[in-house]
Amino acid sequence: MAKIFFPQYAKGREGINITPGESVLEHIRKIGGVEIDSECGGKGICGKDIIRVEQGAEYLGEMTDVEKNFLEKGELKPDQRLACQAIVTEDAENIRVFIPSFGKYTILTDSLETNVELDPAVFRKGGKVLYYSGEELGSYEGKIYGLAIDVGTTTLVTQVVDLETGENVGKPIASKNPQIAYGNDVISRIMYTREHKNGLKELQEAVIEGVNKSLSKLEERLEVEEGSIIKNIYDVVVVGNSTMRSIFFGQNVYDLGVIPFEPLNKEPLIRKAAGLGLNLHPEAMSYGPPLIGGHAGADCLADIIATRLYQSEEIEMIIDIGTNGEVVIGNKDKIMTASCAAGGAYEGYQIRCGVGAIEGAITKFRIENNKRIYETLGGKPPIGICGSGVIDLLAELLRNNIMNERARIQEDYHITDNISISQEDINQLITAKAGLRADQDFLIEYYKTTLDKVAKIYLAGAFGNYMNINNAMAIGLLPRTNKDKYIRFGNGALAGAKDMLLSQKRRRDAEKIARTIEHTKPNEIKGSEFQYMLAERMYF
User: Fold this and answer.
1) Lowest-pLDDT range, 340-344, 396-400, 492-496?
2) Which helix (H) or strand (E) segment is 410 a member of?
């Protein structure tokens, strides 16, 4: 019997048998663990349960009048359907479905404020707005704004800044990266650009549309005249990992998916924003800071700029755990980095009970007197467990001898009647943990220093912001050291982007240090020995 698959979710990847006559939404409800916005309950009123059918579209009924109405209003694209309206007509072949917008994510926007001397690349001179190169961008209309963008693999965060005062214009706007409908990780996105004729264009347009929507949302939130902020944005700084930054600027990412996994172009980029499709001032400029190497991109560089690690007399580290993980070590004299695929398992994509940071996700967990005690996002009934909860869970299983030091459990462990963790799940988690920890230990060794001599360890990103540090050390995700060394830095990538938006000097700093950073590939340097490093760090 044919199945319908939802590859963005652990449960969805197993698929569910097709029942002809039922809608895609009904299949989603039956499979469980697959989130989709459906505010009207499947009545075809809200138009939010949008799906894209990657395979098997011919086995769905024709577009309904409800869908055609949303299509005419521009709220639905020609290659999209509404899950509640798309009826499966037969089970001849498998169907693969992607969900562009799913769940209500909690996205980290906060970061430590950094002080920079105001010297933006766009400024007023008399009645004109000029770019630092001397190019005239337009007449001064009373405001000059800039836009900082952090393009994460999973999330998209934007912040408008007044370039004349350095002050934020409203709070950051956060959303899911619309590209997630094309795959959860960078490799799946790279493959999409390779396997589809217009794949790169589709992915670029998706993220650009996401930015444009965020700006419209900002104006609505501030209750200002439509376009009053947008038309005065003259400069943009975009950071992201190597794949995300490259796609944003429409650059080929093929090389990042094949050995030696290096970007085709690591140099800083300057483009007209209008040419990218951004709805800003017609002459606005956009800047993409340089990439470091491999999958360590402009976001990692932004972390370095924001923490001022590159100015430090002492040795410091940055650990940024997202869908990809980056580790940095260094000071003003020397900086080294390493990157790995770290966050997928901890973001809920590779374990059966895992979900992202959405309402109902278990974020904290402990065992007291054999009782399971947990907290969920929004205080909602539990639907799964997200990254911070997973760390707590592993630590508690270890602490209570339910899991041994070899990471083995006797049977599936149930948190609730419907949420459990299996040995297979634990294997995924310890593999991801081992990769990130091996990079940390390798960099300390390769830098010819010791953990004791590392003065500060910055935890960047949402995962680092919310995790229980003691539990992370207990399971070996983070090195055991004085807890006071750890500094939660919040969204370091956005903070670094803002620095480069407000200061030409920070841009020059970024370009200078990017050329000197040594991006390491531990598996190549260590050879077969690296496999032993990984194996040792899989256990507790």
Assistant:
1) 340-344
2) none
Distance, in Å, from the CA atom of 186 to the CA atom of 294, rounded to the nearest integer, reads 12
**pLDDT value of position 101:** 60
Strands 128-131 and 3-5, by their bridges, are: unpaired
Q: How far apart are CA 519 and CA 439, in angstroms?
A: 11
CB 132, CB 39: distance < 8 Å: no
Distance of CA 307 to the CA centre of its chain: 20
Helix or strand (DSSP H, E) at 211: helix 199-222
As a whole number, mean pLDDT of residues 110-122 equals 82
Residue keyed to tokens 């697959």: 34
Q: Is the pLDDT of residue 35 over 80?
A: no
Q: What is the largest CA-CA distance in the chain?
A: 74
| Residue that has been written with the tokens 């995962």 in this structure | 463
Closest by CA position to 463, among listed 496, 441, 436: 436
Cα 198 to Cα 332: distance, rounded to the nearest angstrom: 43
Exposure of 142 in the CB half-sphere (CA atoms within 13 A): 3
Cα–Cα distance list, 283 to 239, 273, 373 (Å): 21, 7, 55
CB contact at 8 A, 396 and 420: no
Distance from C-alpha of 387 to C-alpha of 465, rounded to nearest angstrom? 11
**Cα–Cα distance for residue pair 237/251, rounded to 1 Å:** 16
- Which one is predicted more confidently, 536 or 466? 536
Burial state string for 369-385 with b = 16 or more CB within 10 A and e = fewer than 16: eeebebebbeeeebbbb
| 3-class SS of residue 18 | coil
Query: Sign (positive/negative) of CA torsion 247, 249, 255, 256?
Result: negative
DSSP 8-class letter at 100: S
The letter for the amino acid at 206 is: A
Q: Determine how many CB atoms are found less than 10 A away from the CB of residue 210.
A: 21
In angstroms, the CA 36 to CA 189 distance is: 21
Give the closest residue to 5 by CA, choosing from 42, 52, 39, 40.
Answer: 52
How many CA atoms does the CB half-sphere of 318 hold within 13 Å? 33
Residue 346 has pLDDT above 70, yes or no: no
Structure tokens at 512: 């200078």
What is d(CA 288, CA 497) in angstroms, rounded to the nearest whole number? 9
- When mean pLDDT is compared over 294-308, 422-436, 453-467, the highest value belongs to 294-308
**What SS3 state is found at 159?**
strand
- Burial tier of 43 (Cβ tally within 10 Å: 0-12, 13-18, 19+): exposed
CA 435 to chain centre: 18
